[in-house]
Amino acid sequence: MARSVTREGAKRRPVAKTEKKMPRVVLKRLARYHQIAVRSGEEGQTYLSSASLANLVAVDATMVRKDMAAVGVTGRPKVGYFIGDVITRLGEVLGLVGTHDAVLIGCGSLGTAIARYTGFSRFGLKLVGIFDSDHAKVGKAVDSHLILPMEKCKSVIRIFKVKMAILTVPARVAQPTADWLVRQGIQGIWNFAPVDLRVPSHVKVRDENLAIGLAQLLYAIQQANRAK
Amino acid sequence: MARSVTREGAKRRPVAKTEKKMPRVVLKRLARYHQIAVRSGEEGQTYLSSASLANLVAVDATMVRKDMAAVGVTGRPKVGYFIGDVITRLGEVLGLVGTHDAVLIGCGSLGTAIARYTGFSRFGLKLVGIFDSDHAKVGKAVDSHLILPMEKCKSVIRIFKVKMAILTVPARVAQPTADWLVRQGIQGIWNFAPVDLRVPSHVKVRDENLAIGLAQLLYAIQQANRAK
DNA sequence: TAGATTGTTAATCGATTAACAATC
DNA sequence: TAGATTGTTAATCGATTAACAATC
After folding, report:
1. Which of B13, B74, B142, B175 is the least buried, fewest Cβ under 10 Å from its Cβ?
2. Looking at beta carbons, which residues of chain A come within 8 Å of B117?
3. SS3 call for B41
């Protein structure tokens, strides 16, 4: 009771709407909106309606409007949302502005694929070094990157003040490597090893567990066949 | 009203619990349990408690028990769940039994990385052909696979009765390629192009949109820094 | 103006958590 | 037996959807 009175009494100040932490599902949609807006912009469109976005993301139009309202993107009745606004604002919210230096650990097939992929530069991702503990790989080139020995990783992180690591090592060594990265001051780990990493709460992890995606697809196919 | 009466009146038959479709979030957890069980088994453990699973998946122990009950895995008080049961039953539910033939379309860096990766064979995934429309790539080897021309894809799908495709083509051609695959009778697409594919409802798609993962990580890192 | 679309509040739905009983 | 752990029902919480008002 007392609490609700307090809340009622307090003046509603115009808080920057980004401040409250977004739930995961919302973030996922926001990232999709952003992606669609970028692509639509490249195709020469200038406005997107909540209905069209909803259609592309397979979600209710009301939710698109709510999401947009939540991040402070305002649309125009009868027209829709201005694509420039969507890209700018969602880019801010998602933290896609500026460059993000990262190290990549593990130059196996997946690691080199990621090192070669240029699409992430759109998000400001920049690899300042790629590393492997296998000395046979050290010195080889992956596009413009030279594979460096793990021994050099520590100083690269320190010198470039790297905050983010991409982890593409075998499952077995993923956790110890992550522990080591955390000790070097890494704040975010994009993990492609099929393990759920344990890290201190100040470190953020995104587990890109591809096997889980495969399992989900196999389940869906199986369901569809069973229904028949 | 009438409906609820009908439901009440109907005898509760012991339906195989798998039949009702699992929500996405649940599936994700099930796939993780399976992964953990496999790994724990390899390490020589024989039982897993709901608490330990909950800890590894960062979820409430009650939910683990509910999930297990939902798929029909029964545990033993004071002991936990028998790892063999967990692997077998979850494998069945997720459709990880038997082999799943698949074609891979697009032998760029990500495509070849996936073609090289052997970890998915654990789920019964078997590549019966890898394809590229770039004739300069055709004939080259990716481990034990030879890159085939797209022109051959149709007959491979027909001859091997392939139901699943892995799509690792550029974003631009992803949708038309998917449309074509659907016409060839493909039932499931594992899509790595950064586009949400539109397919008929009888075709299942898993969008493995890595850029969304990156965006989510960047957001989390940004949030953590802002909080300070 | 009429119509289309955004914006917002209220209702619904479903997933998660809490509490506790059952069981080895 | 006592204790630990599973299993299940009820309460809570939060996300989604529905309804409708506001606006260009």
Report:
1. B13
2. 109-110
3. helix
DSSP result, B74-143: --BTTTBEEHHHHHHHHHHHHT-SS-EEEEEE--SHHHHHHHH--GGGGGTEEEEEEEES-TTTTT-EET
Chain B residue closest in CA terms to A33: B212
Whether A132 and A106 have beta carbons less than 8 Å apart is answered as yes
Distance CA A38, CA A24 (A): 21
pLDDT at A80 over 50: yes
Tens of pLDDT, residue by residue over A185-206, are 999 999 999 888 989 989 999 9
Q: What is the full per-residue pLDDT of chain B (228 aa) written as tens digits?
A: 333 333 222 333 333 444 567 888 999 999 999 999 999 999 999 999 999 999 999 899 999 999 999 999 999 999 999 999 999 999 999 999 999 999 999 999 899 999 998 888 888 999 999 999 999 999 999 999 999 999 999 999 999 999 999 999 999 999 999 999 999 999 999 999 988 898 998 999 999 999 999 999 999 998 888 766
Q: Does the beta carbon of B196 lie under 8 angstroms from any beta carbon of chain A?
A: yes
Measured between CA atoms, how close is B72 to chain A, in angstroms? 16
What mean pLDDT is reported for chain A?
89
The pair of structure tokens assigned to A220 is 């869906």
Residues of A in contact with B187 (CB under 8 A): 221, 224-225
- Pick from B56, B95, B112: which is nearest to A196 by CB? B56
Q: Mutating which of B218, B225, B226, B228 best tests the A interface, going by the most A Cβ atoms within 10 A?
A: B218
* 3-state DSSP of chain A: CHHHHHHHHCCCCCCCCCCCCCCHHHHHHHHHHHHHHHHHHHCCCCEECHHHHHHHHCCCHHHHHHHHHHHCCCCECCCEEEHHHHHHHHHHHHCCCCCEEEEEECCCHHHHHHHHCCHHHHHCEEEEEEEECCCCCCCCEECCEEEEEHHHHHHHHHHHCCCEEEECCCHHHHHHHHHHHHHCCCCEEEECCCCCCCCCCCCEEEECCHHHHHHHHHHHHHHHHHHC
Q: Quick one: tokens of B142?
A: 């990716």
Distance in angstroms (rounded) separating the CA atoms of residues A85 and A135 = 48
Structure tokens given for B78: 């004071």
Band of pLDDT at residue A11, cut at 50, 70 and 90:
very low
pLDDT tens column, A17-60? 445 688 889 999 999 999 999 999 999 999 999 999 999 998 99
